[in-house]
Amino acid sequence: MFNSRFMRTTSLLILAGLVLPWSGLQAVGLDNRRTPVVRAAEAAGPAVVNIFTEEAPRGGQSPFRSFFGDSFFRQFFGNPPNKRKSKRRSLGSGVLINSKGYILTNEHVIAQAVRIQVTLLDNREYEAQLIGADARSDLAVIKIDSKDPLPFVPMGRSDDLMIGETVIAIGNPFGLNHTVTQGIISALHRTIRANRDQVYSDFIQVDASINPGNSGGPLLNINGSLIGINTAIFQDAEGIGFAIPIDTARRIVNNLIEYGAVRRGWLGVSVQDLTPDLERYFKLNQSGGVLVTRVSPRGPAGKAGIKQGDIITSIGDHRVINKSDYFQALSSYTIDDVFNLGALRDGVRKNIRLRLSTIPPGYAREFAEQWLGIRVSTVDLSARRRYRLSAEEGVVIVSVLPNGVCGQVGIQPGDVIRRVNRDNIRNRADYEKAIMEAGKLSSVVLLVQRGRSGYYVTLEP
C-alpha cells in the first residue's frame, strides 16, 4: 500500500515537473517570436498613415495636351467638346514625423490634389493641409490637426547605413492597409532616371517590396528609426525598391515647414565633366571632379576665390566625380548653409569654405544671356507685329549668339519660349524665375514655338 501511494505521488510530481517547464517554454517561445522586426513594426505602425487624394478632373483630353500644356494645345487645336469629368482618387502612404501632426510623404502622392484625406492605423480620419512640396526631391509635407495625441516615428540617420543591413518598409500597397515588408539594403547612392527629364540621385536600394501605394511610407532600420522615405518610381520593378535617405529629407522638410518651399542656394559657377583629354591636359593624378567653366564675380564661389579652370572634387562630405554628383551634393544644401569645397588648382589641393546665398536681384537677365546666349523680350503687340507671332504668351527671342548653346541647336530670333523644364512661361518674370531655377541643374529643356509648330530642345550649358 505504501509503495503504491509512493508511486502515485512520484508520478504526480513528475507530471508537475513536466507541465511547469512547458508553460515556461511557451512564454520563452512568445518572446523569441517578438523579434526586433516585430517590435519595430509595432512601434512605428501607428504613425504610418494612408493617404487618399482627389485630383483635378482630367477626363476627355488628348494625350498631347499634357505634353504641350493646356494653353499651348488650346491655341492650335481649340477647346475639346465638353465631356462629363470625374475626379480621380489615388492612394499613397505617409509617416507622422512629430506630435504636431506633420506628415512626410512623396510629392507625387499629393501632386494635383484638390483634397487630401488621411487615415491612421486606429481608423481615425482627418482632412490634411498641404504645407509644402518639392518635385525635384519628390518630397512633400502635409499636416493634420487633432485634439488627441498623435504617434510619430523619430528620425534616424542615413549617413552610416550598411549594405546588407536589415530594413523594414511599411505602407499601403495597392490599397492594402498597413502592409509590412522586410529586406536588406542592396546598394547605396543609386542614381535613378524616373523619366525623360527627371533624375534622382543618392537613393537607397532595397529588396523589400515597395509597390504603388507604398510611396511616401517609412523605411525603418532594425531599431525602428526612420532612415528613408519609400518611393515606388518603378512600377514594374520586381525585387527592387528605392527610398530617399532621411538625411536628404530632413533638410527638405525643414524648408517646407518653415517656408512652404525649398530655398536652394546659389553657388554662382558653371561646370562640365572632365574628359580623358582634359584630365591629361590638367595632369590629374586622380579621376573624377568637375571643371569650372564660368564664375560669377557676385556669387559665393567667386567671392570665396574659386576661379575658372579650377576642378571641384568635393562639396561638404560629398565626393564629386561628375556633374550628377556635383548637382546632387549642391541640392542637399540650402540658403545660408556653410560647407567646405574641395578643389584642385594647378595640381595644388585647396579647401575653400563658403556660404550659399540667394541669387542677386536683377541678375537673372544677365545670367540667362551668358548661360544660354540669347536675349528675350515680352510677347507684346510690337513683338507680335515684328515677328508675325501667333503666340500671345511666352517670351520672344530677339538675338542669338551664334556660338552660344541656343545658337548651336538652331534657335533663331522670333522663336518663342513657352516652357522651361516643367514651368509654363507666360511673361518675362516667369522666364527669369524659371531660368534661375534651371541654372541650378545640369541641363535645361525648352519648349520652343516657331510659327504654329512646337518642339523641345535639351541644352547642357
TrEMBL record:
One of its GO terms (biological process) is proteolysis. The active site is at 108 (charge relay system), 138 (charge relay system), 215 (charge relay system). Substrate binds at residues 54, 108, 138, 213-215. Residues 256-317, 353-452 form the PDZ domain. InterPro entries: Chloro_Bact_Ser_Proteases, PDZ, PDZ_sf, Pept_S1C_Do, Peptidase_S1_PA, Peptidase_S1_PA_chymotrypsin, Peptidase_S1C. Coiled coil: none annotated. SUPFAM superfamilies: PDZ domain-like (SSF50156), Trypsin-like serine proteases (SSF50494). One of its GO terms (molecular function) is serine-type endopeptidase activity. Keywords: Hydrolase, Protease, Repeat, Serine protease, Signal. Belongs to the peptidase S1C family. This is Do family serine endopeptidase. The lineage of its organism: Bacteria, Pseudomonadati, Nitrospinota/Tectimicrobiota group, Nitrospinota, Nitrospinia.
